[in-house]
C-alpha cells in the first residue's frame, strides 16, 4: 500500500514538530514557508493555505495534544489504546495506511479537534483572521423568551470552513474509496462539534430578576465530542463504494445504510494482540490489565490468552484528611501494597 499523505497527515506532522521540539514563535513564522514547502504529499491548495496562515498552523499544532489525549482517554482500556509513535512521520505510524474502524475514529476526532482548536483560538483573539462570531448581533429568542446577543460566541462556522477547505483538499482531488471514507469521517467529526454548541446566558435586572438576558453560543467541553464519536465508533458501518464511485453502500446486506453522522470504514481491524508494523499494531505486551474484570480491560481479553505477570508495588495516597479552621485541609501520606498485572509478550 502506497503512503499517500492527506490534510490530516499534515496536521500530524505539525503536531510532531510542535510537541517534540521547543519552537519559538519567531522561528515558526520565518520557517513556515520552508516547512510547508517540504512536507510531502500536500496539494497546491494545502501548501498555499499553510504558507498564508502560519498562526493557524501554530494554533493547531499546539492544540493537537488535546485531541490526542482525548483519543487515548476514550480507548485507555482497549487493546488499541490510540498509542502514538513519538517522532515518526506521523504520530500513529502505519496505522493510518489502513481503512479500519480505528482510522475512521482518528480522522473524525482529529477533524473535530481542528475545528474546536481554531474556534477557541478565534474567541481568545489569538488569530488575526477571525474573532467572535460576527453574526450573533441584536436580539433573538429561545424557549425562555427574548435575549440580547452579547459576550463572545465561538465562531465555529469559520473554523469548519477552514478545516474543510484544508483537510479535505487532497481527498477532493483523489476521490477513491479511501478518500471518500476520509471525507465522510472528517465531516462527521466537524458535525460532532456543532452538535454540542450551547447557549450560555447571563441575567441582568434588579435583585437578579433576569428581566434582561445577554447570551452567547459556546462550544461544550471537548469530552462531549469525544464521547459522542466513541459511541459512533461502536456503531461504525462497514461500507463499500457504490457502482458510480460517488458514495457508499453497506458492505453486508444486514448492515444499515450509513447516515452523515455515522463513522464508516472499509476493512476489518487487526486484533492488535501482537506487534505488527505493517498493520500499525503495537501489541498488548506489557499493558496493564484487571485480573477480575470480564470486560475488554480484563487480563483474559487484553492479553489475548497469553497470560499475565503479577508484581507487588507500593502506592502512596492521601488519607486521614482533616479540615482545619480556617481554611486548610491537611492529609497524611498512606502507603498500600497492591498487585499489578501486566500482559505477557508474544513469544
From TrEMBL:
Keyword terms of this UniProt record: Developmental protein, Disulfide bond, Extracellular matrix, Glycoprotein, Lipoprotein, Secreted, Signal, Wnt signaling pathway
One GO CC term, this protein: extracellular space
One Gene Ontology biological process: cell fate commitment
Molecular-function GO terms, alphabetical: cytokine activity; frizzled binding
Origin superkingdom: Eukaryota
Keyword Signal among record annotations: yes
Function (record text): Ligand for members of the frizzled family of seven transmembrane receptors.
Protein family per UniProt: Belongs to the Wnt family.
Protein's name in the database: Protein Wnt
Organism this protein belongs to: Nothobranchius furzeri
Gene name linked to the record: wnt2
Amino acid at each position: 500500500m502506497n503512503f499517500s499523505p492527506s490534510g490530516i497527515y499534515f496536521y500530524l506532522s505539525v503536531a510532531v514538530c510542535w510537541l517534540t521540539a521547543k519552537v519559538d514563535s519567531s522561528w515558526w513564522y520565518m520557517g513556515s514557508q520552508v516547512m510547508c514547502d517540504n512536507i510531502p504529499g500536500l496539494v497546491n491548495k494545502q501548501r498555499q493555505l499553510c504558507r498564508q496562515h502560519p498562526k493557524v498552523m501554530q494554533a493547531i499544532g499546539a492544540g493537537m495534544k488535546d485531541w490526542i489525549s482525548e483519543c487515548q482517554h476514550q480507548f485507555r482500556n482497549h487493546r488499541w489504546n490510540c498509542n502514538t509513535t513519538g517522532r515518526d512521520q506521523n504520530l500513529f505510524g502505519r496505522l493510518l495506511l489502513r481503512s479500519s474502524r480505528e482510522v475512521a475514529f482518528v480522522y473524525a476526532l482529529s477533524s473535530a479537534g481542528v475545528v474546536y482548536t481554531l474556534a477557541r483560538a478565534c474567541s481568545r483573539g489569538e488569530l488575526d483572521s477571525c474573532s467572535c462570531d460576527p453574526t450573533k448581533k441584536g436580539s433573538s429568542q429561545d424557549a425562555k423568551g427574548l435575549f440580547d446577543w452579547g459576550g463572545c460566541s465561538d465562531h465555529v462556522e469559520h473554523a469548519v470552513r477552514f478545516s474543510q477547505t484544508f483537510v479535505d483538499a487532497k481527498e477532493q482531488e483523489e476521490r477513491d474509496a479511501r478518500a471518500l471514507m476520509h471525507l465522510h469521517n472528517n465531516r462527521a467529526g466537524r458535525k460532532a462539534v456543532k452538535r454540542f454548541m450551547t447557549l450560555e446566558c447571563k441575567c441582568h435586572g434588579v435583585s437578579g430578576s433576569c428581566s434582561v438576558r445577554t447570551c452567547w453560543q459556546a462550544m461544550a467541553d471537548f469530552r462531549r465530542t469525544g464521547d459522542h464519536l466513541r459511541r459512533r465508533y461502536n456503531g461504525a458501518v462497514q461500507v463499500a463504494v457504490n457502482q458510480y464511485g460517488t458514495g457508499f453502500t453497506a458492505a453486508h446486506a444486514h448492515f444499515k445504510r450509513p447516515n452523515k453522522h455515522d463513522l464508516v470504514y472499509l476493512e476489518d481491524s487487526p486484533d492488535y494482540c501482537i506487534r505488527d508494523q505493517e498493520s500499525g499494531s503495537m501489541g498488548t505486551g506489557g499493558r496493564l490489565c484487571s485480573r477480575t474484570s470480564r470486560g475488554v480491560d480484563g487480563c483474559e481479553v487484553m492479553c489475548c490468552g497469553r497470560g499475565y505477570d503479577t508484581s507487588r508495588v507500593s502506592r502512596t495516597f492521601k488519607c486521614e484528611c482533616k479540615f482545619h479552621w480556617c481554611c486548610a485541609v491537611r492529609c497524611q501520606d498512606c502507603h498500600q501494597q497492591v498487585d499489578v498485572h501486566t500482559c505477557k509478550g508474544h513469544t
